[in-house]
Design brief:
By secondary structure, the protein is mainly α. The chain has 6 helices and 4 strands. A two-stranded antiparallel ribbon has the order 1-2. It starts with a strand and ends with a helix. The chain binds zinc ion. The site of zinc ion has 8 residues, from β4 and α1.
Length: about 180
């Protein structure tokens, strides 16, 4: 049985699952010259999504389809597949830009002697003034680097940010206390 792999869903399917191409030139008209790169299921899904995507305004159902299709297309792009259609194309532009940016960052990191993004983020956090989000940012970074246990610089930066957060919390509670006193 002849099969073919769909470029969008990645599934290996019997050749009948793909729309045949017919040559447009005279003489070999109506001769099958190949098959679509996407299976029929993916093609009809893309057609439905395109209608919803281009609708203006979109009904609730159309918006829901666009939202769900966005997740599916993003996943397919991330898996190296090649979804088609207007929505998938608009996502591909973002996806390609992000990958290009990631590659650039990777190259620059090499030049910096392999300093990790987490270290760069910790350095920035250590320099920036503390605000309400600082603590949650620090937690996330500590997760990323396993509390900095393997890296003395990260550990040192974590300690510095923690001290700043403590100082900030003290400052805030002083302000709140004086407000409470004032309101009495
Ligand atoms: Zn498919």
């Amino acid at each position: 049985m002849e099969t073919k792999k769909c470029k969008q869903c990645g599934e290996e399917k019997p050749i009948e699952a793909f729309r045949p191409y017919r040559s447009r030139s005279t003489g070999i008209r109506k001769t099958t010259t190949g098959h679509s790169t996407l299976c029929k299921q993916c093609e009809s899904f893309n057609a439905m999504v395109t209608v919803a995507y281009k609708a203006n305004p979109r009904s609730d159902a159309q918006q829901e389809l666009v939202d769900k299709a966005t997740l599916v297309y993003k996943h397919q792009l991330a898996s190296g597949l090649d979804p088609k259609g207007a929505l998938a194309n608009s996502l591909r532009v973002t996806h390609d830009k992000v990958s290009a940016a990631d590659k650039y960052i990777e190259r620059e990191q090499q030049k910096m002697g392999g300093v990790s993004i987490t270290t760069l983020e910790l350095r920035a956090l250590a320099e920036a003034p503390v605000d309400e989000d600082t603590e949650s940012k620090l937690w996330k970074l500590m997760d990323d680097c396993n509390d900095g246990k393997d890296d003395p610089e990260q550990q040192e930066l974590i300690n510095r940010v923690e001290d700043k957060i403590k100082a900030y919390d003290n400052e805030q509670s002083k302000i709140n206390n004086s407000k409470d006193t004032a309101s009495l």
